[in-house]
Design goal:
mainly alpha, ATP-binding, 7 helices, 160 residues, globular
């Protein structure tokens, strides 16, 4: 969805600036209910590029595929004795058992929940996502960096 009514929220070009007030943006975003947003794991703002073609030093598709397959293998091994295969399927006590956090990661998540007033469903989504990010990094525990990245993927939880 667009970030606002005019469609230019977050645009950085002079010719395409958002003309919406903060209240109008908040009203536009409120059209999606909180319970619906809770069910969306990744909520990102994708800005318009300043230039349409840029050489970027980013990870190649082949390297990303390799990392994803490695993370899938880790998850399949972790859950081999259970009737599930992926972090996204975790709930309740299994979520708490397999999503062990470093103290700093736990503190960051708690502060985020309090400041943003997140629901327990959002809390669980962030926890599952941070577990997956940790798996991509081959980390046993969820660290602060994994938690911070997962929280960043919840853009629509942030009030305008």
């Amino acid at each position: 969805m667009h970030g606002c009514y005019c469609g230019y929220y977050g645009s950085e070009t002079d010719s395409q600036r958002c003309t919406c007030s903060p209240g109008r943006i908040a009203h536009y975003r409120s059209r999606i209910s909180g319970p619906m947003l809770d069910r969306i794991d990744l909520q990102l703002e994708v800005p318009r590029p300043k230039e349409w073609y840029q050489e970027q030093a980013s990870i190649s598709s082949a390297e990303m595929k390799k990392q994803v397959l490695e993370a899938q293998t880790v998850q399949e091994e972790r859950y081999r004795e259970l009737p599930l295969s992926w972090n996204s399927e975790l709930s309740g006590s299994l979520l708490r058992k397999f999503c062990k956090m470093e103290p700093g990661a736990y503190k960051l998540l708690q502060q985020t929940v309090e400041v943003l007033g997140l629901s327990m469903r959002s809390y669980d989504r962030i926890l599952k996502l941070s577990r997956t990010i940790a798996d991509l990094s081959s980390a046993e525990q969820i660290g602060v960096e994994h938690m911070a990245e997962a929280i960043q993927y919840r853009k629509l939880d942030v009030k305008i």
